[in-house]
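For practice. Any example?
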Amino acid sequence: MQNPIEIFTEDSDFQTIETLRRNRTKRNRANEFFVEGVRAVTQAVENEWEINALVFSREKRLSDWAEGIIQKSGAKKHFELPLRLMEKLSDKEDASELIALVGMPADDLSRIPLREDMLVVVLDRPASPGNLGAILRSCDALGVDGLVVTGHAADLHDPETIRATTGSFFCVPSVRLPSHKELSPWLDGLKQRFGGLRVVGTSAKAKIPIHEHDFTLPTVLLVGNETNGLSDAYQSLADVMVNIPMGGYASSLNIACAASILLYEAARQRRT
């Protein structure tokens, strides 16, 4: 194992690591992000993401899991810190054994695999990192091939987003795009390749309930913002608009709940 870089004070190395935890601009500039938690770090390594660095303390004995990750991660650097500094870095009540600094992959739609029965989710300006992470978790559980986040949105690489996915972040290709304009040519190409592909929009005002739509076709599912729903631009891209039938007083659902219901219906139809 390579010799670790030892940090004893809140020096420039420490500040760089800490900044990646809290500053979106610095994350994007460095092209790397902050990851902690057993499931998240494990999935990052097992799915062969680029591990730029591992951060840990040896003031307490590391678990077999942590030692195994250190041995097999292929991290370019190891930083060894006092426990008090690990506690400062960690977002957990009990400081994490390991923190990983992970390289950001390119925001390239070619990372999403193309299949005859493909299912892709497009999020229009999601505002909450927690919701974004929960949706990614549902995407992993319910057979989604890729996620696209567009517009001024919650940060895909925010530690809160990563934490909410419980490791699923590293299992579903996720791509950021500035707007629907960059997505539109890709959708046109998919329709040429897969004649049956449908772009499905979602709205409480839509007339077609989700159980009446055929989700067994190759599908790109458009899900709108928490406050404003799906934009007019995205509604114009949709081949069909569907709704989730609801009763009771509630007029809408949390975006993560709604996306999960939509994906469950798609998965249900594809199983039968």
In short: The mean pLDDT is 95.
